[in-house]
Design brief:
The protein is about 45% helix and about 0% strand. It is mainly alpha-helical. The protein has a domain of about 30 residues.
């Protein structure tokens, strides 16, 4: 597994609250939810390379 990069992210309280609620609805942490949102945006824009691991789901 690749090491994950840590960085500080500042967001408006209303955005954070919405992401937090969304994460709770899907039984995820806020961090995991943000990562999924970013991955989907990158995939949709064609900026994310395809995973080479067979059988891996990007959005679990």
């Amino acid at each position: 597994m690749a090491e994950k990069k840590r960085f500080l992210l500042r967001v408006d309280q209303e955005i954070y609250d919405s992401i937090e609620k969304w994460a709770e609805d899907e039984f995820r942490s806020v961090n995991a939810q943000i990562e999924i949102i970013i991955k989907k945006a990158l995939k949709d824009s064609g900026r994310l390379k395809k995973s080479k691991k067979p059988g891996r789901k990007d959005e679990e």
